[in-house]
Amino acid sequence: MKIIKTKLEGVVILEPKRYEDNRGFFQESYSKRLWEEVGLKFDFVQDNHSLSKEAGTLRGLHYQKAPKAQTKVVRVVTGAILDVVVDIRKGSPTYGEWISAILTADNNRQIVVPKGFAHGILTLVPNVHLLYKVDEFYSPENDRAIRWDDPDLNINWHWSNPILSEKDANAPLLNDADNNFEYGVNS
């Protein structure tokens, strides 16, 4: 497995080995043993699967507050997305900074989104199936979002008029968000 570090501490892109032949391919998308050997130690408790029917569907920027914060490992099974991760840990040297990566069924990439980071995706094609593992159960009372088009974040989504849920369209800006992450404390 190849690990690509990003400018955001703990946010990494994974490229699992894929073995292909005339029948198709095989890959281990998750191996606790292999992941722990490279320092990725998580106790996953839930797998989630979403379908976005239309290109230009934006989901995010989402996170769960501590003590129900989640680490996510995201991958695309069908289609392609622009995946965006934002550091929301107060006091972090990269607070408010973001990275983006293209994840597709063909490029085989996964992204690790640690606690203390907001996460969003934009579908680039129709009928995108997204799978992600989390290390904490969904907690509606701790579920939060940040505005996808926050001018202070200045995220380049490469899409001018995305399809949004009401929750995402009305989410607060980062500076107004209900966020209890402190760098080095609960992230």
Describe the structure in your own words.
This protein is mainly beta and 187 residues long. It has a single domain (43-176), classed as Jelly Rolls. 5% of the residues lie in helices and 39% in strands. A 6-stranded antiparallel sheet has the order 1-2-10-7-12-5, with no helix packed on it. Strands 9-8-11-6-13 form a 5-stranded antiparallel sheet, with no helix packed on it. A two-stranded antiparallel ribbon has the order 3-4. The chain is globular. The two termini are 25 Å apart.
The CATH superfamily label reads: Jelly Rolls
Mean pLDDT: 95
CATH topology (fold) name: Jelly Rolls
- Which percent bin holds the helix content? under 10%
Number of strands: 13
The spatial strand order of the largest sheet comes to 1-2-10-7-12-5
Tell me the name of the CATH class. Mainly Beta
- Quaternary state reads single chain
State the helix count: 2
What are the low-pLDDT stretches, counting only 5+ consecutive residues below 50? none
Shape: globular
Taking the sheet with the most strands, its summary is: 6 strands, antiparallel
What class, by secondary structure content? mainly beta
